[in-house]
Amino acid sequence: MLIELKGLNKTYETPAGAFIALRDVDLTIEAGEFAAVVGKSGSGKSTLLNMVGGIDRPTSGSVSLGGKAIQGLSENELSLWRARHVGLVFQFFQLLPTLTVAENVMLPMDFSGAFPPASRRARAFGLLERVGVADQANKLPSALSGGQQQRVAIARALANEPPVILADEPTGNLDSSTAREVLALFRDLAGAGTTVLIATHERDIANVVDRTVSIADGAVVL
Fold this sequence. Notes:
By secondary structure, the chain is an alpha/beta fold. It is 33% helix and 28% strand.
């Protein structure tokens, strides 16, 4: 297995009192699997992805990727680990507006130092070619459609060859046709060996992914 969650709990303290976002979650995702966490808004699916990606820390329980427990890492260790091992894709793309498309894809490589500086631009162009938007490489994100921007975001997520891609509502800001194209791209990535875990409220995703994991009120439901 690549991803393993054991007894995962997350509680947030709010002015209204304690809010339990995750309740005793046990979950394993195999290497190369394309899985979807499905549930209503507020069900805990985004919190679960944040735990897997080391963006947030559990209140209790463990998170392991490739046999490495990450919840005990320091912030600096966690930041470097995440840059090398996890690619993140968001609903609203989160591309830097003042950088070109190619420069956005190069950013993770610049941060982690995973590739020699002289090779990064060529690698960025190769990744943009892989997701079908190499012809947009020298444009600013604002010049691209939503679907094109999401493809750039996926290329950026792949920059450091991470074994895991986490995508939080990656089709939530796209029309249905473009959403199908993006899901097909994730399907291809999983077919090539990348583990893809997405969070979505779309129940009809079952015919695209290998497995769906339903979550309600912070708990995995069968």
